[in-house]
Amino acid sequence: MNKVVVHALLEDAAYQHSTVPVTSGTHTFDYAQVYTRSVRLANCLESLGVRPGCVVGVMDINSHRYLELKYALSMLGAIIHPINFRLSPQDVLFTMQHAQDEWLFIWDGFGELGATVSKSIPHTVWMSDITVHEGGLEYESLIDEGKFQMPRAASHVRPEDIYSIFYTTGTTGQPKGLRYSHQQMLMGSLQIAHHLALHDTGATLSAQDVMMPLIPFFHIHGWGTPFVAPYLGTPLILPERSNALEQISLIQRHGVTWINMVPTQLFMLLEAAQSAGVQDLPLKILTGGSPMAMGLARRAAQFHMTFSMIYGGSDQLGSAISTAAGLTGDDRIKQLSTHMMPFPMVRMEVRTATGDLVNADGQSLGELWVQSPWLPDGYLDNPEQSQQTYINGWFRSGDLAIRYPDGSISVVDRMRDAIKSGGEWIASSTIESILSEVPGVKSVAVIAVPDAQWGERPKAIVEASPSVTESILREFLRQAVKQGQLAKFAVPDVFQFIHQMPVTSAGKINKAALRTQ
Amino acid sequence: MNKVVVHALLEDAAYQHSTVPVTSGTHTFDYAQVYTRSVRLANCLESLGVRPGCVVGVMDINSHRYLELKYALSMLGAIIHPINFRLSPQDVLFTMQHAQDEWLFIWDGFGELGATVSKSIPHTVWMSDITVHEGGLEYESLIDEGKFQMPRAASHVRPEDIYSIFYTTGTTGQPKGLRYSHQQMLMGSLQIAHHLALHDTGATLSAQDVMMPLIPFFHIHGWGTPFVAPYLGTPLILPERSNALEQISLIQRHGVTWINMVPTQLFMLLEAAQSAGVQDLPLKILTGGSPMAMGLARRAAQFHMTFSMIYGGSDQLGSAISTAAGLTGDDRIKQLSTHMMPFPMVRMEVRTATGDLVNADGQSLGELWVQSPWLPDGYLDNPEQSQQTYINGWFRSGDLAIRYPDGSISVVDRMRDAIKSGGEWIASSTIESILSEVPGVKSVAVIAVPDAQWGERPKAIVEASPSVTESILREFLRQAVKQGQLAKFAVPDVFQFIHQMPVTSAGKINKAALRTQ
What we know:
Chains A, B: This is AMP-dependent synthetase. Chain A has 517 residues and is α/β, with parallel strands linked by helices. The first copy, chain A, has 17 helices and 26 strands. In chain A, α1 runs parallel beside α9. At the A-B interface, α1 and α7 of A face α1 and α7 of B.
């Protein structure tokens, strides 16, 4: 490539890694074919009037078509809006209006939501292997009609042009829109691969891996995997809509070695493996989005999985990944669960409320501030939130963190999830991590409840099998206090058992919902 | 960092890797100290009138001062011109005039050359541990006088601003000037580290390595090592002026694990190791600039060294490094000597004279064309050469190459070094590689001599111990032909023995000199 624009990546892969396979459902292509299809699609869309700067919504599972769209829209200088279909229908429509989507590419498996959403927009293209729909265009027909000739717009696309817009999940209020240029999106994505390769991690990546992204493409473009795979020339397995058992089958069939997913997905994968009698799944896993419970981490190790945690988000892209140079056994697992090393080019500072740096002593708590070359300017059409969050070239994360002498960082809580008791921070994640190791506990959330004397006090909400009682949980915490893992004042006052933990569209525990219950 | 400019790298390292050591001669600093000294220097130079865009020549061995200047000049938005002091004095002065150097920073160990050169320029700063010179300023005094306060210019430096100018060695005519922006210089340098980390190579790099650059900083900034080391946070050992024996001592004392050097330096290092009775030097070596003779490669393996070859140059930066996924033993050594894999983002095409792609069959020869995001626009003030070399976003390398089915490339010769005999290319390097394995042979060069019947025919020029005779060489080649390593018509007609092979300032065999002899 001579310009750092998204479609140049696929063009390079089509030349350098032409025969490397890209598998999606029952389809198997190679990078040369994916490129050809993307060019044809872009060519046809240009003739249909898709112009540079046009915003195109995409609502799809992780498929080859989604992959192609990420490149075809780049060739057109159009802006891709990966729609988070796990948001409420109102929020889905809100993000489409807010982003000013002019076109919608939609998989035909969304049922009622798909029908509702498609009515809201002038141009709809249906993505399916079956080719009959009322109203709208057919994806495969567009490819058939397009010529294998780069759209005229392609050579004018510049690294600084906006490539994508996407939204926060909006656990506190309406989703907020972020826009990233080609250069920002690629730097933020590729730096994940570089960091993983340069460090001793549990998800170390090389050109010899076989990648399967389980993080949905609507979530920060699947953490950059659709860009990293062609960049490295690795085979790419796209899981489409699949359950954990089907994912295990894909892993075994295609020799998948590297996966990304949130801890909840990992839990489901392990449950499925166990029920299917699979004892060995030697995978490298990049996980994040919520803390990794030690119980889950140890269980993954029994399946010969290794993992690292990534820290980042829609409003900063990736910033840090856990490393564990030279460590083995349980020490390694603990370190990989917690110690994030900033990517090269990323600065992370842990600051007090007055802006001073907290000591890098592995204990002092403060707010995490992040700086990187791929930070956005702010939220789209939201000057107030932007001003509060993007300050002098820094991103104010709202996360409570610790810095260690070696420069690594532990994010212990969202500031709003942490409990401030008697002037001291209590990190909900610390208590959650300990309780998750109690046999029979499936899920734990610790939230703050108002307290007249202390300001706030922690309350534990637990999903567990019937054998688990409050006194068992209290005994576990008493031992943790004894071993120095937990301050005595951090032991929750109240324990509540529930049948099913509420989760957000991103698969995280929905603490906002728990607080209002 | 929030902008991809050179000095932001050191600023990050001073924060993230503050206590990691940088050793130079008898001095040991850490990244925080190197940063402090660089800021003080830049601050003082700003007060002395060094403005953005000002060209500053630096003539120094690989020292901490050279390292500091690379960052201090970035902070000022000035342009660093690393002067190749191995050029002839006339050429040194030519490059300084051509680049329009306004300041000169010069080590006081260059003797007469230093005195001559320093007279040619208005502002001279002497770099030394001793602080008495007639005329000019003293480097350490500038640091003492400067405040620890970023120069005002620093925040205005942009990624697209010119960071550096340097020159080709000019084996064919006058040195040609190349200018690179901050972004180009950093991308081209860091992509070396990324490629090494992502692939199975003989010089795989990680954040756990200890780096010692033996490639001089005047040569493409030591192949980017002064940028890569702080980026990774690895210790950096700067060899200053040292002979091979002293280098071995540095390696052992500081636990050096990663070195770059040309094959000639490797040869000298192995000779020194052998004479000193050192049997084990487990180093990862990035080498290039001239072919790696198999004899040298096998000898390095006996010392437990591993290596990879880099392909690149002043007029393209780095473009490819040899890889050897899954290979072991002699197969691995052979592959690492020859099979270059383009960096991600680099396109390499092997084309016929009429511009068609040659078959990727591992045999067909053609000219290598290179495309990358860090290519320069052209040579400085040299529109004619620029037009012939930089064509439609491609760099026309003038190298004769082969492409393999796996996408790797072998550069077999400079086009001008290859022999065209009866319409067929003969690569001089193939013959040189075979003859270098004859016991007693120290150095071989094969050049073209005019021939009435065939157009050109190969002639071998050999530096060897007295025991080596022409009939021994001929017998070796006869065996190589028998084993299919060499075409019969490629066997040289004439063998000439010489006492000492002439070399260029870059340590390569000077074939131009051999041709005129």
